[in-house]
Amino acid sequence: VQLQASGGGLVQAGGSLRLSCAASGRIFSNYGMGWFRQAPGKEREFVAAIRWGGGATYIADSVKGRFTISRDNAKNAVYLQMNSLKPEDTAVYYCATKIDSGSYYYTSTYDYWGQGTQVTVSS
């Protein structure tokens, strides 16, 4: 399984970015996808996740109301729409995939990871 994340960049506070993650290879028949981020000197943290059917999503409290996760199963893709960005959102953002069961909040439950895309929010 290969995951390719894109869409990161430099944006001013209050701006928006849309991250994309495309999955390819021998992906699970039913799989969930998540976004995590890691700032310098900090642990990787959960941002958002979406289950196979797309009806259930999970959003971290720190980004709730500003970030939205969605997916297109026909394209094996997941998206993270980030609005009202803050300097504290600055991090490398990673997409990951897992079997559609169990917890979505922990890095240890994911099976495959993308390479990450840098998001920098200037004040």
Mean residue pLDDT: 94
Percent helix among the residues?
A: under 10%
How many strands appear in the DSSP assignment?
11
End-to-end distance? 37 Å
Going by helix content, strand content and strand pairing, the class is mainly beta
Low-confidence stretches: none
Instruction: Characterize the largest beta sheet: strand count, sense, and whether it forms a barrel.
Output: 7 strands, mixed
Please state roughly what percent of the residues sit in beta strands, choosing from under 5%, 5-15%, 15-25%, 25-35%, 35-45% or over 45%. Answer: over 45%
Number of helices: 0
- Listing every helix as H and every strand as E from the N terminus to the C terminus, the arrangement reads EEEEEEEEEEE
Shape call: globular
Rg from alpha-carbon coordinates: 13 Å
